[in-house]
Amino acid sequence: MTVTPETVSSTAPALRKRRPPEPAAGTRRRSLRPTLTGWSFILPNFLGFALLTLVPMVFGLALSFMEWSPWGDPEWVGFENFERMFRSSTFWIALWNTTYYAAGHIPLTIVVSLGLALLLNRTLSGLGFFRTAFFLPYVTSLVAVAVVWNMLFNPTSGPVNQFLQFVGVTDPPGWTSSTAWAMPAVIVASVWRDMGYYMVLFLAGLQTIPTELYEAARVDGANAWQRFRNITLPGLRPTTFFVLIMCTVASFKVFDLIVVMTDGGPGRATKVLSQLIYEEGIREGRFGLASAISLVLFVLVAGFTVLQFVIQRHREDR
Amino acid sequence: MKRYPSALAAIAAASAVALAGCSSPASETVDPSAPVTLTVSAWNLDKTPEFNALFEAFEAAHPNVTIQPVEILADDYPEKVATMLAGGDTTDVLTMKNVIDYARYANRGQLLDLTDFVGGLEKDKIAGLEPFDIDGKYAAVPYRQDFWVLYYNKKLFDEAGLPYPDHLTWAQYSELAKKLTSGTTPDGQKVYGTYHHIWRSVVQATAAAQTGGDQLSGDYEFFSDQYALALDLQNAGAALDWGTAKTQKVNYRSMFETGQTAMLPMGTWYIAGIKAAIEGGTSSVEWGMAPMPQISSGGETATFGSPTAFAVNEKAKNVEVAKEFIRFATGEEGAKVLAGIGVVPAYGSDAVTAAFTALPADELSRTTFTENKKVVLEMPVSDVTSDIDTILNEEHELIMAGQKSIADGIRDAGDRVKNEVL
Amino acid sequence: MTANLTAPVARKPTTNAPSGPRRPPGRARVRAAVHSVLLAGLCLLVLVPFVWMISSSLKHDNQVFTVPTQWIPREFVWSNYADIWTQIPMLAYLRNSAFLAITISFLQVLTGSFAAYGFAKLRFPGRDWLFLAYLATIAVPWQAYMIPQYLIMEKLGLVNTHLSIILLQAFGAFGVFLMRQYYQSIPDELIEAARIDGLSEYRIWWRIMLPLSRPAIASLGLLTFVATWNDYMGPFIYFTSNELWTVQLGLRSFVGQYDAAYAMIMTGSVISVVPVVLVFLLGQRHFIQGIATSGLKG
């Protein structure tokens, strides 16, 4: 739905290890007034958020230990849902596919968007046009994206395979109708869609690196690669960190694009966890099992995020 | 298993009784003339003319009732209805697109018990009622009973100088399809001998109906020959390959209506579709209908089909009017309306058969429709149906897309069903 | 581009607009040319799907798939763009989408920035835990709590109303998160000074924070607009009546019903993308202005 992590934009700097100023001990009075003022700011949003996001989510969490559907009474079943989940071959396949997607989508997106940002991070004519062009896929509706890419990837008459045949590939892949190539096809489409967004984040990051550093490096005789390696990359670290986290969360939650492009097929070749949650929960009405799967997905995402935080902190402490 | 159409063949001696029964609903206690808005769930209204036809006829007969369709996209119908019911939606009449979904909703107690109501209907005239019987209880009544036939393009047969596909065996069918694959349409599209739509039922339900195999059993050897046939046609280029049909979301209607295929195994619901396309001027196909090809010649025709039914929501606001609507739609009046637009009604009588004017005038089409045949339910109903359906579908995709051999696909489907479902 | 650029810029107003390392002329000109050609090539590659989309939308259905691909239609079928309005109620769909996207973006920015001020600049017990709750929800897939959410909506009697989607999406965690991050980049001294001047917290938010965070607002607004406009599942689950449908539902339904009408499907896709692109292009100028005028000037 709307709250896709990709849309949770920007502002890498804020995730830097940056402690808010601690108030002096004397000012830390337990007066009611700041509390009231604070809450009055948060309340308008929090009411809606709590009622429609937080409560359902906690409810969903509890459901993973229950056997329940809205047409019966909930019943505590302990880990039964988890046992059932671990027995299901589709769960393991979906887990593998989700990881596969993430392993392809995250690095590719980061490399491509960083590359684009580097290319655009200089004065050249038509800059605005290029930035717009690269950002365009991100604002395009998913239904349109899926339809277009499916047509492009058409095994027999699609332009992609026509091109491949033109350059001499005699047996081009079957893309979305092949178990081996369906996931790469989805990854290509998703990288195409997301790169503009992350490119913008990288562009923002690049602009925080003072030009003087490059001047100094050039005076010292550093070549382009050395400058990239020793100035750009370290300077971008907070941005990269932020992009990495956002991209990870988005990758593990991937749903819409897969549903509209392949619907998990052929067979189970592109079935991912969030799709399995949807199918078990909505189609089969097994809310308990669906909630158990989403708990696994949540732990997975949270685990990766925490891991990245730890690595980041470790690096900064060095 | 259901014999069809014992009801269709019967003489409509009781039609007067039916009408009488219709006009005197015993349980109606509310003021019958008070204005009511009845909500009915439906899909793709533009392309499914039966809904509006039934609604208009019912409104004409009941001036105080306004029917408000709740339109849902056909592809997403089961998910959407499941979500609605989970949330306590109060739509009065729910259309049961197939018996699998029916079993799901009924087992969850989301549909009103109609056992007594069904007891008051002419059960022997309504085909396809049997699968809706869950432990002696009914929660829906079928208004439509479709079965699968072989559509063919007369012009393409004539041009090739081949006889129409009258009671074929699969071997003859395959040979014919290969012969008919030649040339292009005026638009420059390739003409195929036949088109197999992407659904698993095209292969699996056909095999089950004709071999007597059980799709819930976990032993799927009986699919083998049918898969071999389908793949052979596809590899020979006599049928559009499954992968293209799937990724391109190819529509069987456009394949047939634009003359891109000479034959098409498909359900009888398509009769109304062709009729509408020809009347609307979007197609000029000269079509006919033949029985589904069989494994061997000479026997009784075996095919598969599935009923479509109306049910009342457990939380319906207008229960009595909803029942009245179902009585109308599943009775003779509704059946005539349906027959008039080319939809095969579940209710059968001579009057209804006479009203069925959408058929081509030739003898073969008429025989196909009226001959005695064995119509097996597309997919048996039980509490494991939907899980098995998912597995069979996934393995079907892999076999048809050439990602697994027939033997592997059948073995894996069986293993998964036995290990994870049964 | 988007205001995503702005937060860091606001933090370090000393660094200026895009300017790469300077080079001596001569060889540099060749390099610049190569660079431009490279960019143009990449750009073309990225735009291929759009070119295909537009080109297909101007063809007859049966000309969409041809071997070899026709990138320029043999005959321009402009009538597709006239016919689609009568084939499906496209105008009504566009209106619904626009209404939802604008309302939700407005509410999201308003409540999001209001709450963000509380999280970023005020101290009170429970604040950090509360924010953690907001953050954690971002990692949970929506499918996991979709049903409980639906049950609540049904209890409130809001299913099958536009209000359901508005409520659902206007209070999301991501607006709060984005605005808070931006507010944290605004120096606390500024707020302290305002407090000493006797401004109430509400006035500080209204008079100082809001004007300062214009780029972030533009960014959040644009992203929310795009997300709402392109959302499919939400409207699919909550809207049953055709009159409520958004462009995405309409388009999907069209694809479902007329799967061979390739050209018309592309026409619909092009029309569905145009409004978002327009909003983006309008917004882009605003962001750039925002970048130029942000910083500490207020």
From TrEMBL, chain A:
One GO term of the biological process aspect: transmembrane transport
Pfam assignment, any one: BPD_transp_1
InterPro entries in UniProt: ABC_transporter_permease, MetI-like, MetI-like_sf
Biased amino acid composition, Polar residues: 1-12
SUPFAM superfamilies according to UniProt: MetI-like
Membrane topology: Multi-pass membrane protein
Primary localization: membrane
Keywords: Cell membrane, Membrane, Transmembrane, Transmembrane helix, Transport
Annotated coiled-coil segments of the chain: none
Chain intervals for the UniProt region annotation (Disordered): 1-30
Ranges that cross the membrane: 38-66, 100-120, 132-153, 173-192, 239-261, 287-311
Cellular compartment(s): Cell membrane
Domain of life: Bacteria
Domain ABC transmembrane type-1 residues, every copy: 95-308
GO cellular component: plasma membrane
PANTHER family documented for this protein: ABC TRANSPORTER PERMEASE PROTEIN, INNER MEMBRANE ABC TRANSPORTER PERMEASE PROTEIN YCJO
Family statement: Belongs to the binding-protein-dependent transport system permease family.
Protein name (Swiss-Prot/TrEMBL): Carbohydrate ABC transporter membrane protein 1 (CUT1 family)
UniProtKB/TrEMBL annotation, chain B:
UniProt-annotated location(s): Cell envelope
This protein's UniProt keywords: Signal, Transport
Signal peptide: 1-20
GO cellular component terms given for this protein: cell envelope
Highest taxon of the lineage: Bacteria
Organism field: Pseudonocardia cypriaca
UniProt KW Transport keyword: yes
PANTHER family linked: ARABINOSE-BINDING PROTEIN-RELATED, SN-GLYCEROL-3-PHOSPHATE-BINDING PERIPLASMIC PROTEIN UGPB
Family: Belongs to the bacterial solute-binding protein 1 family.
Protein name: Carbohydrate ABC transporter substrate-binding protein (CUT1 family)
Record-linked CDD domains: PBP2_TMBP_like
From TrEMBL, chain C:
Subcellular locations according to the entry: Cell membrane
Chain ranges of the ABC transmembrane type-1 domain: 94-283
One record GO biological process: transmembrane transport
Chief place of localization: membrane
Keyword Transmembrane helix tagged: yes
Membrane topology: Multi-pass membrane protein
Keywords: Cell membrane, Membrane, Transmembrane, Transmembrane helix, Transport
Region annotated Disordered, chain positions: 1-27
Transmembrane residue ranges: 32-54, 98-119, 131-151, 163-183, 204-229, 260-282
One cellular component term from this protein's GO annotations in UniProt: plasma membrane
The family this protein is said to belong to: Belongs to the binding-protein-dependent transport system permease family.
PANTHER family: ABC TRANSPORTER PERMEASE PROTEIN MG189-RELATED (PTHR43744:SF12), ABC TRANSPORTER PERMEASE PROTEIN MG189-RELATED-RELATED (PTHR43744)
Protein name: Carbohydrate ABC transporter membrane protein 2 (CUT1 family)
Organism annotation: Pseudonocardia cypriaca
